Amino acid sequence: MSNPRFQRRTQIVFICALFFVFSAFAKSQSIDPYFNQSEPTNRVYHYELPNFSLEKYLVGVENLLRAYENSHGVSFKPGTKGRVGLKVYSDSGPGLSTPEALVEAVVQSLTKRGFRRSDIFIIGLSSRTLRSSGFLPPLSHRSVQFNQVFVRSLDSGSYYHENWFYDSPLPAQTSEYWIDIERENAVGKQDEEDARQRKSYLPMPLMHEVDFWVNLPCYSDHPTLGINGALMNATLWNASNTLRFLRSPATAPVAVAEMGAIPELRETWALNIASLERFQYVGGPIFNSLYTVSEPSILLSDNPVLLDSVMRERINRHRRENGFAPLPQELKILAYSEQLGLGDRDTELMNLVQLN
What we know:
Elements: H1 4-31, E1 43-48, H2 54-72, E2 84-88, H3 100-112, E3 120-124, H4 127-132, E4 145-146, E5 149-153, E6 165-167, H5 176-183, H6 187-197, E7 199-201, H7 204-208, E8 212-216, E9 220-222, E10 226-228, H8 230-234, H9 252-260, H10 263-268, E11 269-275, E12 279-280, E13 292-293, E14 297-301, H11 304-321, H12 332-339, E15 351-354
Parallel strand pairs: 1-15, 2-3, 2-8, 3-5, 8-11
Antiparallel strand pairs: 1-14, 4-5, 6-7, 9-10, 11-14, 12-13
Helix pairs in contact: 2-3, 9-12
């Protein structure tokens, strides 16, 4: 016959053990809530800025992040890796790049949530344009920091790995590639070079070093894809050997969609935040001040396809007002990206959340 006192003691020990296991599990879940996020939503959060000062950006970004966290039940606090990346756009030069004040505001909002500046890094495609846009100091300073935040330039080649690439049969970026091939006598060497030139290497830090990363695009029109924004900044402006795609209206949208849907990149791609301090409606992505406009707004969404659709409408409004033909209603970059699950493109389904 069993002892009732012993049974009660055993039950208490068992319940306590379950409690500690559950607590540990709950704690681990609260650290990384964004890893298990579902499909992108149709919410676009809008904050109207009184002006473009750092002070106003700080208030705007904090309100946007807090609204997103409250609505989605997440918290952008440090997770298991304790690092976060910020993908900026600087490839059109200083006239059309991610505003520096926006980047600093995002950094300060992240430090409020537990990240240190040393846990955050800024990443961009070209060291030359990062420097001209203010994200890197002059070479004489011998520094690679922006306000004590480390800046990584992808063209250094240090952040790609031979095992992580997007493969495409398109030719290389320049015609010199074909001249070199003709001079090759060994078939094996030719095949090896051909295989290498088909690869676009992916940004390793954003896939394997961070809890999450934030996409900070700057908008313009684009002659091949129609719109240069969130999708482009996360894909073709985020990998090597991608200029070859921009010559082909047929293959470029496919490359954007397929690169954006790569699971390792998509899983850590948390948010898109765009300031409308500067965007261009004609002649992009080459900067032309005659066609650059400004609206006092910040937009935030986890849906890059819908955000690009919203900005296509804003760009088209300025094109019509200034006598230019609008961008097509059906852009392949948006259609293909929607098909691969990057988000809905129909702005009629958008849930616009006005914060002020």
